[in-house]
Design goal:
six-stranded mixed sheet, Protein-Tyrosine Phosphatase, Chain A, nine-stranded mixed sheet, 15 helices, UDP-N-acetylmuramoyl-L-alanine:D-glutamate ligase, 2 domains, about 450 residues, binds zinc ion, single chain, alpha/beta, about 35% helix
């Protein structure tokens, strides 16, 4: 071990300790310090993993998919290190390695499972040389981030181009931009849905309905939401690849999904409502299959699975059921509304909390790209509560979508608004849909009341 690497790890850990005790809790500082001392530290540490690393990327679903994969891998007895939710840039990835151990220098874990931002993929792939790269989907994220979707796809493509030939790809067959990443020479595990499509959700923001090969508009035989579905290119004949992992049927009432894994069909638990969660689950199963996790271990892990922080997480407050679902971009928001719509109850209460701090995306104009017009007439919301820093913008958005003025309560204080909403939902269901920092606030309020365990990221 070089003295420089040793110094990098120790200094990185010290920086992490200082930022924790000083209450700043910065997750990238240890990575910054370690890389400043030894720019090759991530490369060195990743190379020592006996099994290797898995990088998970894509616009939506990384955190949920990662937590499911983690459970499946640990259930078969493999140890792994992972990064904290949101710390998915190169400094966050470096920090995950540097801080993996307390009393030892090098991580003892066999594997690393890392959520990776799309723009970080080229660098992360070069330095980490992962054995598996899993891609969930590509959607236009908050408008102020990277601009064009094609740029985002190119980042991931460049990352894959830096992989060795033994690398395995896990790709969403139903997203043409993701399926289009399949290149010669790699072993690929495709996953997708094959059940009835149901209501696809209006003319959802459509990001990528064009053939990645020749640019022709794709024909869809079936569409689950946005551009996810079964497609074929009339120009060059390219079509959705047949997935190795296919979800054949699902039932919200029974909380199960029938899944084909290779040639085996099995009924698995499906606890998180929403088709987007079904995709996350399929992504996790495909990643686990790529890691040779046996089917019975996958099955058992899903039965024990609890959704990750704020990803359609359910909490009971007295006799009222609370569901928390993070909203962060138009497609994600549409999918959360679709999941609410699947609720068979005749009425429920909905609370939307919109902040515009950095972690939320500072431009709230994306709310106008959410298909409220489509969903408002279909949802059976008895009353709407809106709040957060930009609660008033949200109220305006609902008004334009046709919600009656007296069906909406706008509040400034989050605690007071939460109390009102819980009271209004009395005995029924309250859906709480916050942006990221609003989620932290509401989660803190619930934790103060002992309703949720105190939130720790990661
Ligand atoms: Zn084509």
């Amino acid at each position: 071990m070089s003295l420089r690497a040793l110094a990098a790890v120790l200094a990185g850990r010290l920086a992490g300790w200082i930022s924790r005790v000083s209450g700043r809790g910065g997750s990238s500082l240890p990575g910054l310090v370690a890389r400043w001392i030894d720019p090759r530290i991530l490369m060195r540490m990743a190379a020592r993993l006996s099994w290797g690393a898995v990088l998970l990327t894509g616009t939506n679903g990384k955190t949920t998919t990662a937590s499911m994969v983690r459970r499946m891998v640990e259930a078969q007895g493999t140890t792994l290190l992972s990064n904290r939710a949101g710390a998915n840039l190169i400094l966050g990835l470096t920090a995950a390695f540097v801080q993996a151990e307390r009393w030892r220098i090098w991580p003892r874990t066999a594997m690393a499972l890392l959520e990776t931002d799309e723009a970080t993929m080229p660098r992360a792939c070069r330095e980490i040389q992962p054995r598996v790269v899993a891609v969930t989907n590509f959607f236009r994220d908050q408008l102020d981030r990277y601009g064009e979707l094609s740029t985002t796809v190119k980042f991931v493509r460049d990352g894959i181009a830096a992989l060795g030939e033994q690398a395995v790809l896990v790709l969403n067959a139903d997203d043409p931009q993701v399926a289009g990443l399949a290149g010669a020479g790699f072993k690929i595990f495709f996953y997708g849905l094959e059940g009835e499509a149901g209501e696809a959700g209006g003319e959802d923001a459509v990001d990528a309905r064009f053939c990645p090969g020749c640019g022709s508009a794709l024909h869809y035989q079936r569409r689950y939401y946005a551009h996810l579905g079964h497609y074929r290119c009339p120009g060059c004949g390219w079509q959705r690849p047949r997935p190795y992992i296919a979800v054949l049927r699902w039932s919200r009432a029974e909380k199960t999904a029938l899944v084909r894994i290779g040639e085996t069909e099995c009924v698995l638990a499906w606890r998180s409502p929403g088709l987007y969660n079904l995709y996350n689950q399929a992504a996790a199963i495909a990643t686990a299959a790529a890691l040779n996790v046996p089917i019975d271990v996958i099955k058992r892990s899903l039965e024990e699975f609890r959704p990750a922080f704020g990803r359609m997480e359910s909490v009971t407050a007295g006799n009222t059921q609370l569901w928390l679902a993070l909203v962060k971009n138009p497609v994600g928001f549409n999918q959360v509304l679709a999941a609410v719509h699947e609720d068979p109850e005749p009425s429920y209460t909905v609370m939307i909390l919109i902040n515009d701090r950095y972690a939320d995306g500072q431009d709230v104009s994306w709310l106008w790209d959410v298909d409220f017009e489509y969903w408002i007439s279909r949802l059976r919301a008895g009353h709407w509560f809106v709040g957060g820093v930009r609660g008033r913008d949200m109220a305006v958005r609902l008004k334009y979508a046709g919600v009656a003025r007296d069906a909406v309560t706008v509040g400034d204080g989050m605690e007071e608004l939460l109390d009102q909403a819980v009271k209004a939902a009395d005995g029924g269901t309250l859906y709480i849909l916050p942006t990221y920092t609003a989620m932290l606030e509401v989660r803190r309020l619930l934790s103060d009341r002992g309703l949720v365990r105190h939130f720790r990221e990661g």
